[in-house]
Amino acid sequence: MSSDIYRQLIAQTLREAAGARPAGAVVCLCAEWCGVCREFKALYEQLRQAHPELAFRWLDVEDEAEQLGDLDIETFPSLVISEGEALRFAGPVVPQLVQLERLLRSVPA
After folding, report:
1. What is the rounded CA–CA span in Å between residue 41 and residue 38?
2. What CATH number does the domain containing 36 carry?
3. CA 7 to CA 59: how far, in whole Å?
C-alpha cells in the first residue's frame, strides 16, 4: 500500500534529520532523467532554506527503487509531506515557489 511506503519515507527522513527534532518532513520524489525535476531542484533547495523547521529529502525514484517497492510515481515532481510522522499530503505538485509555500502553510505545524 502506497501510504505505508510514504510513512516509511517520512520516518526515515525524520530519523536522519540533523539537529533538533523537525516539525515534519518534505520528501521530493523525482528522477534524474526528468527535465522538470532537474529544474525543480533549485526551487526545492529554496524551500528547504526557508523552512529549517522541516526535514527535507530529495529522493531519486530510480536510485532508490528498492525502497519504493511497487510505488509508481506517474507525475514529477511529487512530494510527500508530514506533520511530525503523520502523513498530510502525497502527490504531484506544480513546481512554483508560491504554490509550494501555500501547500506547506496548509499543513498544520
Report:
1. 5
2. 3.40.30.10
3. 14
